[in-house]
Amino acid sequence: MKHWLFGYGSLIWHADFPHHERRPAAIPGWARRFWQGSHDHRGTPDSPGRVVTLVPADDTLCVGVAYQVDGAVFEHLDHREKNGYERVTVDIHLFDEGGGRRRLVPGVTYIAPPGNDAFLGPAEPDEIAAHIARSSGPSGSNADYLLELAAALEALNVEDGHVTELASRVALRRQAG
Ligand code: SIN
């Protein structure tokens, strides 16, 4: 059986799983935030990085990418997203290739809810940027995760003020050495 999977973070640009289709998509009522700790990808248990999760937000549309996948990929994805993420059922708006028309389909996404062992929660933008700038883990630097996400969203023509602000703060810190 085929399923729709919604990705809003690394799943946008790092699709290390087979899929039948990939297209821009959105889920309403959620905002992307660098509020989740990463012990296994962009940090370590002693020095976790910061990666994105979704938080409820009225009147907000979180834009990302939807993949049509076979059920077999969830074994791999559940392992990849094991650091606090849960597979949650959502309604996904699929964008048509040429424009803004949408089709609503049921699907799943991975959300790391408040209270999970790795959850870090909100902080001032400069504190989050400093945290990201100094963190790294087995999958690479935390700054690369943020900058890859910012580039992937730009390629999708998505405005996400939270991500853009953090990306410019981290880029400035990199330039300053
Ligand atoms: C996602 O990309 O949809 C989940 C969060 C992540 O793995 O970065």
Structural class: alpha+beta
CATH class wording: Alpha Beta
Number of domains: 1
SSE topology string: EHEEHEEHEEHH
The gross shape turns out to be globular
Please give the largest β-sheet: 5 strands, mixed, barrel
Number of DSSP strand runs: 7
- Report the span from N to C terminus: 50 Å
β-strand percent reads 35-45%
In this entry the ligands are:
succinic acid
Helix content: 25-40%
Features:
globular, two-stranded antiparallel ribbon, 7 strands, five-stranded mixed barrel, about 40% strand, binds succinic acid, about 180 residues, alpha+beta, single chain, Hypothetical upf0131 protein ytfp
Describe the overall structure:
It is a single chain. With about 180 residues, the protein is an alpha+beta fold. The protein has a single domain, classed as Roll (Hypothetical upf0131 protein ytfp), CATH 3.10.490.10. Helix content is about 30%, strand content about 40%. The protein has 5 helices and 7 strands. The chain has helices spanning about 10-15, 75-80, 125-135, 140-155, 160-175; strands at about 1-5, 20-40, 50-70, 85-95, 100-110, 135, 140. The strands form 2 sheets. The protein has a 5-stranded mixed barrel. Helix 3 crosses helix 5 and helix 4 crosses helix 5 (about 160-175). The longest helix is centred in the C-terminal third of the chain and has 16 residues, at about 160-175. The radius of gyration is 16 Å and the shape is globular. The termini are far apart. The mean pLDDT is about 95. Succinic acid binds next to helix 1 and strand 3.
